Amino acid sequence: MSRVFLALGSNKGDREKYLKDAINSLSNDNKISLIKTSSIYETTPYGEIPQNNYLNGVVLIETVYSPNEIYFVVKKIEKEVGRTESVRWGEREIDIDIILIDSLIFENEHLIIPHKDYDKRDFVLVPLCEIDNELIDPRTQNKIKNLINLLSETYIIGKVNFNLNEN
Length: 167
What we know:
The protein is α+β, with helices and mostly antiparallel strands. It has helices at 15-27, 67-81, 122-131, 144-148, and strands at residues 2-10, 32-37, 40-43, 54-63, 95-101, 106-107, 112-113, 156-160. It is built from four helices and eight strands.
């Protein structure tokens, strides 16, 4: 079983519903166990395209899927939940990124683990620390909580009062 940290985000349509639907889809897969969810944070968009604020959070799952398999499962869930095509860095109904898989360092044509530039995004680092305050970046061996102090930009506006596990 691998421990996999997934970042979820939505800034188009019913953001809360898209996040909850994605969590439900993950939970309904018999090869995935949902272990823990972070709080949800409202955040300003990352990138240069003007758009609505995001709701972002992180979930920890355990799975027997390989890195490639979990990538394709996540892409399938995004589509089933309602993700439509958009421009790079554009608005999204749902976005699910694989951030970390155990202490794996991995790259192929579909996937880079740890996720590229996750360490520059407080909306990923803060919820990661909420789930596991002792988590280590496998590339640098730095504690994730220490990476937060190195950020030059912040995107988090504040916590949103709802739980991903509620239907």
